[in-house]
Amino acid sequence: MAKKIKEALRILTALGLPRAQLNARSAICLLALCNLKPRTAWENASAPLVGITPIMEFAAVHYMDKPYAPNTRETIRRQTMHQFCDAGIALYNPDDPGRAVNSPKAVYQISPEALSLVRSFNGRQWQRSLTDFLDRNASLASKYAKPRKLAGIPVRIGDSQTIRLSPGAHSELIRGIVEQFAPRFAPGSTLIYAGDTGDKRGFLDSTALAALNVKLDSHGKMPDVVIHDTARDWLLLCEAVTSHGPVDAKRHEELKRLFSAARPGLVFVTAFPTRKNMAKYLGDIAWETDVWSADAPDHLIHFNGERFLGPYA
Fold first, then answer.
1. Which CATH number fits the domain 3-150, given the four candidates 3.40.190.10, 3.40.50.40, 1.10.10.1820, 1.20.1050.10?
2. What pLDDT sits at residue 206?
3. pLDDT value of position 56
C-alpha cells in the first residue's frame, strides 16, 4: 500500500471514523479531496471542488493499478463521502447548497477545518490541531449541514408544521402533491408519508400508519407520498414522476401487495410536473389509476374504470 494511503488511514483512524470507513477507498477519497498526489507534502494540501467521477479518476491515475468499476460510484458516495460530511471532514455542494441531491453536477470539498488539520500532519502542531478538531467535531457537522437544510424545499403539513425536503424537481413535485393536490381532491386529509431523495424518508407518521393496519415490508418500496382521506377512509398512494416512471401495471401490483393489509381503500395516483411530461408516459399508466399534473392543479385524469378517484375491490 502506498505511503500516502497509509498516512491518510492514520488520519482517518485518529479522527475516529467507523471501521467501515477505515480502508483504502476512504483514504484515497481523502487524498483526492486534498489533491494530494504520492509526492505532494501534506502541508501543500488544497481544497478543490470534486465530484465522485473525478475522485475515481484521481484514484486511477495516482493510487491504483486499475480504475474503479463504474458501479463503485454509489459505494464511494454512500460508504465514504456521506460519512465524511457527517464528520465535518467534507462539504457537500458548498458552491450551491440548493443543488439537487441527484444532480450530476454534485461536488464535494474538504472543510476549512479539516484542511487545516491535514496540513499539520506529521508536524509539531498535529496533536493540538487534532484535539481542536475532535472537540469541535459535532458542531462542525451541524454547522455545515445548516446551509443545505435551509436550501431545502419547505412543505407545509397542516396548519402548524413544515418539513424541508432535499432540493430538486422531485421534491418540488412532492410539495405540489401535499399542498395543491390533496386540498383539492382529498380535503381534510392527513399526510402519512412523504419521501425524500436525500434521506428517503422526509416525513413518516408511523403511529397513523399502524392505526390504519398498514404493516410495511422492509423490502417494499414506498410510494413518494401517502395521504389518508379520513372522510372517505381512502389511502392515496402517489408517485411523483420527474425521472422515474408512473404507476404502471407492475408498480400497481407492487403497491397493492405492499398495502394489502391496509384497512382503507387504496387509490393510486401518478403526479407529473407538466402535461407535456405526462405525454411521454401515457402508454405506461395502469388502468384504474388517476393522474394529476401540477401545471393544471384543478384537474384530474382518470384512466378508465367504474368510478372516478376511488378504490377498487
1. 1.10.10.1820
2. 83
3. 95
